[in-house]
Amino acid sequence: MGGWAIAVHGGAGIDPNLPAERQEEAKQLLTRCLNLGIVALRSNISAIDVVELVIRELETDPLFNSGRGSALTEKGTVEMEASIMDGTKRRCGAVSGITTVKNPISLARLVMDKSPHSYLAFSGAEDFARKQGVEIVDNEYFVTDDNVGMLKLAKEANSILFDYRIPPMGCAGAAANDSPIQMNGLPISIYAPETVGCVVVDGEGRCAAGTSTGGLMNKMMGRIGDSPLIGAGTYASDFCGVSCTGEGEAIIRATLARDVSAVMEYKGLNLQEAVDYVIKHRLDEGFAGLIAVSNKGEVVCGFNSNGMFRGCATEDGFMEVAIWE
Q: Tell me, what's the pLDDT at 167?
């Protein structure tokens, strides 16, 4: 074992004209979350606990698209989803259609630890949350002024917007049908999602992963993306922990997170080789990114988009926070 390692992400695919102050805000948040995880790992907190801790912090800050600050549905409400997985015995929990739970990642953890199931959604997940006594807030808590403005822009463009924080000048008047980017064969106007995730390997070589998101701006009610789907947006095993971000439908089709672990196990690839392989060969024409750690203490970030909000650190003192290639 090579010691502990941690990585966090705030989404892959970024507007090249993103204002410098927003870039700096993102780097500061990623750095804060990395430091939170580092302190926990130095205190011998388990990988699964660190993943939950870090993602809770990301969900509480409105900067990225998870928890407070989540993208809005076509009806102006928030429907969140999250998943978490412990590589030890491949235990997992996931939730979708969450509207009142302050920290969806913790509800996913409770599904894993306190229910006989792996995945709960919509009213069933909300009922379970209340029985477990988790913190509940009004749906309005998750809605920000920025989101309301971007939903209006999305409706005017008659499109789904991936990056709801791109300034309006970046897509004003851009009709969806003019876009070269497609999702399931249909054109979209902007590609830049901001899902959050965290992967950790602790000092004992245990891997864990988690992912949380509000989904797409102006999405259809009931839409479920890759983030809560074990094997697609999130996966952890004895070999590695992986969290994905990007075009959800492409990630689902590729079972992207699971494939990293699979090629390590079946092809004998190391973590860097495995990440490079799945990014190159499994996404077809989709755009996505992922963060991954191995049981050897390796950490890798990979993406085929123009950038990814990301940060990583290892026990030997290495630490990096970056956005572009």
A: 41
